[in-house]
Design brief:
binds zinc ion, 368 residues, 7-stranded mixed sheet, binds nicotinamide-adenine-dinucleotide, alpha/beta, two-stranded antiparallel sheet, Dehydroquinate synthase-like, alpha domain, Rossmann fold, globular
């Protein structure tokens, strides 16, 4: 049985998130968009295309007017305007018009890039997300943020633009490397930490099943994660308030990521940042030491890092204060009142940040 969530904006249903183990229901879902009269272009990166593009193309060819595949070289480095231009050119050559559709088949890079093309080609054409990495399934495919990097600036150019459908086939996670999969767990754990203590406990009790990518446990955790993101985004689509809670672990995480991105994946840096946020929440007297320890242990159970000794403290603090998420020179730090209850704390200062980073650097959260 497939799971279905519906994302709303201003109380109007905008699109469904369908979660199923494989692609058997995809053609049926796509038929709802009258694809017999529309051309489709599957956009995918070189890794994912090799594994999945042919089978998805075959599935859809039985129903659609015509199906094309556009492949770009995998990697964040290609999430840029150059690749967007390549895709625009291809769409023009294939005479794609306003009623035709794009399908993003891949991780967050593919989803962000394809979504941005869909938002801008002919002032906007429909697109569907088929996320295949854990990060994309629980995070980037939901919420309507699309965009590309510009020179060294991440996600500098983009648009808020909703897909028509997010179709998640959980089986695709089986071809993901352990490192990519576990990195995605950083974002999954984040949802428990910021919003849902029961989910946090579930993740604690199902470590083995989830690490083995057991279908049932994985489907459940993806559903809860998407549903949490859905609710937060519905309340605050343009990130005026509550959506900032999703940045838990990202203030320090992003700053650290700048210096170690060659070795560490995004979710790993978020994990380190979350350990730092738990420490700050503990030091400020919001949560108990036991709660801090519980968060750090859960991250470690999923083989996620909580320390990093290759960073320079001052550099990372400066990077933190230069983050675009700053408001009037203050950091909107995401702290915890308890596990499952995060809030925006504007009182976190330089020294507290430095303390947390020292713990991260030394790998010891039990100082003083
Ligand atoms: N739009 C948003 O709200 C949002 C949120 C979070 C992150 N992001 C963006 O997402 C991107 C990161 O996403 P990502 O981690 O998925 O990166 P990614 O798309 O580069 O995928 C990671 C790697 O896994 C491979 N891959 C993906 N699915 C696979 C599968 N099923 N089997 C085998 N290999 C597979 C990809 O080819 C790639 O090499 C960043 O650019 C980030 O900015 C966007
Ligand atoms: Zn993230």
């Amino acid at each position: 049985m497939a799971e279905r969530l519906t994302v709303h904006e201003n109380k109007m249903p905008i699109y469904d998130i369908v979660i199923h183990e494989n692609f058997e229901l995809l053609a049926e879902e796509m038929e709802k968009f009258d694809i017999a009269n529309r051309k489709l272009c599957i956009v995918s990166d070189s890794h994912v295309a090799e594994i999945y593009a042919d089978s998805i193309k075959n599935l859809l060819e039985a129903k659609a007017k015509e199906v094309f595949v556009y492949v770009f070289e995998a990697g964040e480095i290609n999430k840029n305007l150059q690749t967007v231009m390549g895709l625009y050119t291809y769409l023009i050559e294939q005479k794609f018009d306003r009623k035709d559709m794009l399908i993003a088949l891949g991780g967050g890079v593919t989803g962000d890039l394809t979504g941005f093309c869909a938002a801008t080609y002919l002032r906007g054409i429909d697109f569907v997300q088929i996320p295949t990495s854990l990060l994309a399934q629980v995070d980037s495919s939901v919420g309507g943020k699309t965009g590309v990097d510009f020179h060294e600036y991440k996600n500098m150019v983009g648009a808020f633009y909703h897909p028509k459908l997010v179709f998640i086939a959980t089986d695709t996670l089986k071809t993901l490397t352990d490192k990519e999969y576990l990195s995605g767990m950083g974002e999954v754990i984040k949802y428990g930490v910021i919003k849902d203590k029961d989910f946090f406990d579930y993740l604690k009790e199902h470590v083995q099943e989830i690490k083995q990518r057991d279908g049932e446990a994985v489907a459940y955790m993806i559903k809860v994660s998407c549903d949490t993101k859905r609710k937060v985004v519905e309340n605050d689509f343009r990130e005026q308030g509550e959506r900032a809670l999703l940045n838990m672990g990202h203030t320090l995480g992003h700053a650290i990521e700048k210096y170690v991105y060659q070795d560490r994946l995004h979710g790993e840096c978020v994990s380190i940042g979350m350990a730092g946020a738990a420490y700050i929440s503990y030091k400020k007297g919001y949560i108990t030491r036991q709660e801090m320890d519980d968060i750090i242990s859960l991250l470690q159970e999923y083989d996620l890092p909580v320390s990093e000794n290759r960073i320079d403290l001052d550099q990372v603090i400066h990077a933190t204060y230069n983050d675009k998420k700053m408001e009037h020179g203050q950091i909107k730090f995401i702290a915890l009142k308890e596990i499952g209850n995060a809030f925006i704390d504007k009182s976190v200062n330089w020294m507290e940040m430095k303390d947390a980073l020292t713990c991260i650097l030394e790998g010891n959260f039990h100082v003083k």
